[in-house]
Amino acid sequence: MTYFFSGRPALYVAKKIGYGCVNLSFAPYGEYWREVRKFVILELLGPKRVQMFQFVRDEEVGVMIDSIAHKCYGIVNLSEVTVILANNVLCRCAFGNKYDGEGEIGMGRSH
């Protein structure tokens, strides 16, 4: 049995969604994992890159607060609102547009 990710067995799902366990989350610890981790930390999660998208986070938090404010007497599902916030921030940073909820990025909504 093959063990990856902190000594856990390599799962079939991880192999399929992780392109054969080559992504950072599922790759076995070793030289390849260290190189991918270094790239992710320096290029994707570095201070410059994170700061570059601060405006996106600020705008999306404002949208979230406005949506909660408009439901002043209604019940707000904070789990759902938080997932929508995270999804919109991720899609805007990665793809440049919000996810419209219908399987297409950027169709029907603008930022």
TrEMBL record:
Required cofactor(s): heme
Family classification: Belongs to the cytochrome P450 family.
Keyword Transport (UniProt): no
Protein name: Putative cytochrome P450
Keyword Iron: yes
Domain of life: Eukaryota
UniProt-listed Pfam families: p450 (PF00067)
Keywords: Heme, Iron, Metal-binding, Monooxygenase, Oxidoreductase
One MF annotation (Gene Ontology) recorded for this entry: heme binding
Organism: Rosa chinensis (China rose)
